[in-house]
Amino acid sequence: MALETRPLNAKVRTGAGKGFARRTRASGLVPAVVYGPHLEKPLNIAVDAKETKAAIQTPKRMNTVLGLSVEGKLITVLLKEFQLDPVTKELLHVDFIDVRENEQVKVKIPVILTGKAEGVTNGGILSQIRREIEVWALPAAIPEKIEVDVTPLKIGGSLHINEVQLPKGVTVKTSVNFTLAVVTAPEVEKVVETAAAAPGAAPAAGDAKAADAKAGDAKAADGKAAPAAAAAKAPAKK
């Protein structure tokens, strides 16, 4: 697989410090540094902010391999890190890493789940634990994404990294068989129902007390009503 690069021009910079960086950004350029095991020391450069953003506007984004042209010399790099102004979102600084066509480089790749899990069809819930994984690949073999089919997953099932078929030239270097996705059973809401009392059934303790209280009130009412009735029946005194 041939290595394709996106061109990006750069200039060597000799100054340093906040003042120099401010003047560099005022001219439309951004301070940058190239690191790498094949360089004697980090290379201080300046790149055009708009050109840098445009260069990584590909499906691979930061994993886009760039052909950095520095004063007639071509350096193959990946954009490693960058700093943005928290308010204006303008580029403040860029770090590149020097790569070689025949040497693997460590990158982070998005994980995309495809298909509909069997457990989801049966009412389960699919949860994606990791949305990107760290892999090693040759610059020309860096994938845009890694797609994983979750169709066979049943309720209670999980998908681990050692079950994933990685693209050719891509490897995962880890001793942990970490989880990418799981299907869990839906939560069942418990409903507490009050059973209706059967005819002739003995009342509960609380109900019995309430019934006794009502009976007492009824007797008291009858006691008050009896003298009143007697008084009504007695003949009036002349």
Q: Spans with pLDDT under 50 lasting ≥5 residues?
A: 228-234
Please count the helical segments: 4
Q: Which value, in Å, is the CA radius of gyration?
A: 39 Å
- Taking the alpha carbons of the first and last residues, their distance comes to 131 Å
Number of strand elements: 13
Notes on the protein architecture:
The protein is of the alpha+beta class and 238 residues long. The chain is built from four helices and 13 strands. The chain starts with 5 loop residues before the first strand and ends in a 5-residue tail after the last helix. Residues 228-234 have low confidence and may be disordered. A six-stranded mixed beta barrel has the order 1-3-2-6-5-4. The protein has a four-stranded mixed β-sheet with strand order 10-7-9-12, with no helix packed on it. Strand 2 and strand 3 form a beta hairpin. It has helices spanning 18-26, 49-55, 118-121, 205-233; strands at residues 6-12, 29-35, 43-48, 65-70, 73-84, 91-98, 105-114, 125-128, 132-137, 146-149, 158-160, 170-171, 179-184. The radius of gyration is 39 Å and the shape is elongated.
